[in-house]
């Protein structure tokens, strides 16, 4: 069965960069995020590697408004769960949201592979999702080039993404990976069994991947395998946009 869903690309163009009038334009990242929060009636789940929405810089006003909206939702007893590899005491945003009733789930990434959490996604009311490059950081709303997608009313995709969120949640404050994962954390869709759906009346296929391999239970596709799959399926062209391309390991702990 094929389901019809509405999808929107959301984008942040850094201040001072102007494209031609004929260039395609998308919904702003800030407005897309605010739309999701305005739709929230029961729950907001967010995974982000950065939590810095307050700053004195003039372009930080959108981050402040987003933070105030999250505080408002928490005060209305909407369930808010936040996953990060930053301790709440290290982020005023996380600490303030926690004091208002949000559940903050800390992942000790350095205990697993000495890495950082790079996932960035939202789940709202178990119906709507955002997946993209932007973290909860004021720079992502003003000074950085960010791109993401919002899919509305897609419980099937949410089901798969929720399993990654549940996996992250199960690791809160732990310092080792369990010897085996619960079946409830297995992937729902993969490269051989993709979700078939209509996105804005265009026939599409989707599945959710993850990294590193430690975080990939049975049927969960590794990110690099997902990239290979997309390239292998290409019929005419492959367009790639990345922030960095350096195919070696970067020591994030090295002194600069």
From TrEMBL:
Coiled coil: none annotated. PROSITE patterns: PLD. It holds the Pfam family PLDc_3. It comes from the Eukaryota. Residues 113-140 form the PLD phosphodiesterase domain. GO terms for molecular function: catalytic activity. Belongs to the phospholipase D family. This is PLD phosphodiesterase domain-containing protein. The gene is LOC100547975.
């Amino acid at each position: 069965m094929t389901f019809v869903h509405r999808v929107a690309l959301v984008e942040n163009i850094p201040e001072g960069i102007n494209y031609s009038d004929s260039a395609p334009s998308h919904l702003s990242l800030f407005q897309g995020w605010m739309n999701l929060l305005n739709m929230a009636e029961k729950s907001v789940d967010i995974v982000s590697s950065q939590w810095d929405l307050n700053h004195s810089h003039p372009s930080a006003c959108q981050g402040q408004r987003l933070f105030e909206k999250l505080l408002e939702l928490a005060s209305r007893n909407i369930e808010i769960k936040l996953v990060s590899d930053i301790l709440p005491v290290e982020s005023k945003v996380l600490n303030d949201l926690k004091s208002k009733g949000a559940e903050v789930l800390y992942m000790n990434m350095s205990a697993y592979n000495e890495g950082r959490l790079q996932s960035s996604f939202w789940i709202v009311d178990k119906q709507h999702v955002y997946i993209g490059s932007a973290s909860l950081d004021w720079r992502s709303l003003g000074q950085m080039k960010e791109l993401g997608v919002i899919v509305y009313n897609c419980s099937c995709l949410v089901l798969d993404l929720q399993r990654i969120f549940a996996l992250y949640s199960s690791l809160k404050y732990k310092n080792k990976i369990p010897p085996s994962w619960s079946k409830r954390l297995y992937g729902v869709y993969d490269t051989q069994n993709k979700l078939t759906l209509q996105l804005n009346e265009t026939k599409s296929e989707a599945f959710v991947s993850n990294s590193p391999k430690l975080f990939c239970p049975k049927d969960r596709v590794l990110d690099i395998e997902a990239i290979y799959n997309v390239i292998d399926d290409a019929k005419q062209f492959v367009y790639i946009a990345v922030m960095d391309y350096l195919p070696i390991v970067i020591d994030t702990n090295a002194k600069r």
